[in-house]
Design a protein that fits this description.
With about 80 residues, the chain is α+β, with helices and mostly antiparallel strands. The protein has a domain at about 1-50. Helix content is about 45%, strand content about 15%. The chain has three helices and two strands, in the order βααβα. The protein has a two-stranded parallel sheet. The chain is globular, with a radius of gyration of 14 Å. It comes from Compostibacillus humi. InterPro entries: RNaseH-like_sf, RNaseH_domain, RNaseH_sf. This is RNase H type-1 domain-containing protein. GO terms for molecular function: nucleic acid binding; RNA-DNA hybrid ribonuclease activity.
Length: about 80
């Protein structure tokens, strides 16, 4: 299943697409985990770089989570 992942961190997006190498051992472990999960779930990722201004909602949600503010969501599928 193709899925588009958007982010405003150029380094992260370029590392996940393979354009840039990841030299930090701890970050490389996270990349391996992400790639493994995507493969297991049958997800074909497309990573898209957004400007920080275009990514305000995601930035706000991440900031709330880091402050310990509980976030809830529901999704309906057919």
């Amino acid at each position: 299943m193709p899925v588009v992942f958007c982010g405003d961190a150029q380094v992260v997006i370029n590392q996940l697409t393979g354009e840039w190498p990841c030299y930090e051992e701890e970050l490389a472990k996270w990349m391996d985990r992400i790639e493994s999960k995507l493969e297991k779930m049958g997800i074909q990722p497309e990573f898209v770089l957004k400007t920080r201004n275009d990514n305000k909602e995601a930035d706000q949600l991440a900031s709330q989570a880091l402050r310990g503010i509980e976030l809830t969501s529901t999704i309906e599928t057919d």
